[in-house]
Design brief:
Elements: E1 2-6, E2 11-16, H1 25-51, H2 62-78, H3 82-102, H4 107-122, H5 130-147, H6 152-164, H7 168-181, H8 186-198, H9 202-215, H10 223-233, H11 237-250, H12 255-267, H13 270-283, H14 290-294, H15 302-315
Antiparallel strand pairs: 1-2
Length: about 325
């Protein structure tokens, strides 16, 4: 067992137990040291976030501002409404920009700013500012990579530029490069899972997403949604429905009403699926027909998109 303790407060910050054979003690030693480094970093940052409330807030350093930014980003991930998500992401950006103003070489703060703007690029409620958010994302990504090109977050942000540019091979190359630097980096594991999902390797994708969540519970909160999509792609309707229910307890985005209608229809629960379709169309009145839905259906994987459209048809959405 490995432990990390706050010496000042005498409280445990992190612990991990390994249950492995000692046949190759040196291989295990390498694995434990590598994985411990990956797991401890999020734990330390989370612990520092909690200390902020005990600290005077009138003379913050760049590190303090960065922790404030991390805290707001984490609150964004746990927010249940779009309004709250946006409020927290803008607060994260505010603190991140203060951090970089105080220390122009703070690569972690530039990486977090890039992540925040990456979120805004794909947020449907602020698409009128997509060009502006895309420009900021690229600016902060390139700055972070220039400062620390071996940081897996820097590498992954460069990868997401390739993703936005629809250069799938370059995106995959960046993911693999980041995993070489740190095979236990949660954000990279999420990206690897996305690659596997796109390739229809749904079971392997679920494993990658699960590992990412185990390493860092403050990681980007797309885990349950993409796990749902993997179950959906596998036509495992029961697990897809359970996964979706877990996500909907934390998130009320209208897209999930449509997903619910589709999975219930595939399960044969047509009457209940019609109720969810009605809720979806009440929230998204512009989506009246299957042709309309095709433009907003998840397109990470063609098989999933076709199954989603088929489910909406079964639920009663007109052509």
């Amino acid at each position: 067992m490995a432990k990390l303790t706050d010496a000042v407060k005498d409280t445990q910050i992190w612990s991990q137990t390994w249950d492995r054979s000692l046949d190759d003690v040196f291989e295990i030693q390498d694995e434990v040291s590598q994985k411990s480094a990956a797991l401890i970093s999020p734990a330390i940052i989370n612990n520092e976030r909690k200390k902020l409330s005990d600290r005077e807030m009138n003379a913050l350093s760049s590190w303090d501002e960065y922790l404030q930014a991390v805290n707001s980003y984490a609150l964004m991930n746990s927010s249940k409404t779009t309004e709250d998500k946006l409020a927290n992401i803008y607060k994260s950006i505010e603190h991140g920009e203060k951090a970089t103003a105080l220390d122009p070489n703070h690569s972690s703060a530039f990486n977090l700013l890039a992540q925040a703007y990456n979120f805004l690029i794909f947020e449907s409620s602020v698409q009128d500012k997509r060009e502006e958010n895309d420009k900021k994302f690229r600016e902060y990504t390139e700055k972070a990579f220039q400062l620390d090109p071996k940081n897996p977050d820097s590498i992954m942000n460069m990868g997401f530029i390739a993703f936005i540019d629809e250069d799938k091979q370059r995106f995959s190359d960046y993911v693999n490069k980041a995993l070489e630097v740190n095979p236990h980096h949660s954000r990279t594991l999420m990206a690897k899972g996305m690659n596997l999902l796109e390739e229809s390797s749904f079971t392997d994708a679920i494993d990658a997403f699960t590992r990412a969540a185990e390493i860092d519970d403050l990681a980007e909160n797309y885990g349950e949604t993409v796990i749902f999509l993997c179950h959906f792609g596998n036509k495992d309707w029961e697990n897809a429905n359970q996964s979706l229910d877990r996500e909907m307890r934390e998130n009320n985005h209208s897209r999930y009403f449509g997903f619910k209608a589709a999975v219930l229809a595939h399960q044969g629960e047509v009457e209940e699926s019609k109720e969810w379709l009605l809720k979806y169309q009440e929230e998204r009145p512009e989506i009246k027909t299957i042709e309309d839905y095709k433009s907003v259906a998840p397109d990470l994987n063609n098989k999933i998109k076709e199954l989603m459209i088929e489910g909406m048809q079964l639920a009663g959405m007109p052509e």
